Amino acid sequence: MDTVTLPSAPVAASPLTVTLVKSRDELEAVTPHWLALLERGAIGQNVHNDPRMIAATVRHRPEAQLNIILIWQGDRIVCVAPFYCQAGHFSFDLSVWKLGKFPAHILRIFGERLVFADDAQQHECLGRVIDALGSIRRDFDYLWLYGLTHDDPLWTVGIEQNMLSEKHSLVSIVLRQETNHQIELPNSVDEYVASLSPSTRQNLRRSTRRFFEDPRARIAKMSQPSQVAQLLAWIEHVDANSWQGRTFDGPDRNSEFNRQFLQDVAACGWLQSYVLLHDDQPVAFEHGYYYGGVYFGLECAYDQSWSSAGPGSVLIFSVIQDLIAECSAKAFDFGCGDMPYKRSFGNVGLEASTVYCIPPNRWRYIIRLQMFVDRLYSRVRNGLIRFKIDKFVRKWIKRQR
Question: Cα–Cα distance between 329 and 187 in angstroms, integer?
């Protein structure tokens, strides 16, 4: 584990020190200290930046090069910046249309969040993280922060207050300002239903009742390692018959990596996916993880041949009921994306942006061009939503594809 030499910090009772984790062995060595941070109380933690999830990821994706920055105060970790580098592509696109790909070496962050101890001096810790980033900036083409919420210190200090640029010439270009929709779950299903609009409430009740009137309809809840193969087969079947699957070239669902990775996640107790079935044939799926009282929805889809029955809404409503009644969950995090179903079900919306932080190189020009295209698309999209014709246009595009 490398120790990064940085400018001395202001005098404090216990000075901060910085180390850099770059290997799986080093990650394993610091994991007990990292878990102790989470047990004491931390801000910014999620299932994707838990050290055990990171270990599972790099175990099956050795091409991900760890660059995890740890800030210590004495013998305890007070901040984690879980970065990793990976060879990939910058996709120049317009909405769902891919216009071109360019190879790049990309710095990313597990879980899109830094983790701070509850009592950490966030500004001081973030300054140390940014200094450490400056020391490795020649190792990557750009830092990509997908869906960075505007309440995150990396946004408020690094981007808004321009610390990344001022200290190390990492110019920030903000793309795709979106909303991270969530549901803050109440104590009872009835309380949640009462919070919905009358039309949403009526449609959900009618669609759910009609679907489950057929005794062949049921929901399978998948959470065990032994269920992963069946889950992936069902997801693959639904995806092939969904509008997403017919529009895009999707990933290989039953790859050895995917199976083993999800088995590891399930062994940790975090896998929690749901499949809507009719006569044992998959109709829709909601794939996600449950961690720390929060359900993280990763992806969902339904078979288009069932669209008239509203299977997507039926399944999500059933998932919400299970999370409240059986799991006593605190929240359902849909992730970024302003889809209509997220607006219908969600009751919390966090502003978020995709941000590129770029050293002095050619990528500044490429990504600024993408920013111009995105802003043009955003204006058109907002106009469609304002005039309430976005659903019509979405359906038209699906038919054309």
Answer: 9
For the chain, the structural domain boundaries read 2-181+351-381, 186-329
Single out the residue of 87, 140, 99 nearest to residue 374, CA to CA. 99
Q: Per-residue DSSP letters for 278-304?
A: ETTEEEEEEEEEEETTEEEEEEEEE-G
**CB 293 within 8 Å of CB 329:** yes
Record the pTM: 0.86
Tens-digit pLDDT profile for residues 217-270: 999 999 999 999 999 999 999 999 887 776 666 666 777 888 999 999 999 999
Buried b (16+ CB within 10 A) or exposed e, 356-391: bbbbeeebeebbeebeeebeeeeeeeeeeeeeeebe
Q: What is the pLDDT of residues 62-96, one digit of tens each?
A: 889 999 999 999 999 999 999 999 999 888 776 66
Say what angle helices 228-240 and 256-267 make with each other, to 10 degrees. 130
CATH code of the domain occupying 186-329? 3.40.630.30
Strand pairing category for 115-117 and 97-109? unpaired
The pairing of strands 97-109 and 142-149 is parallel
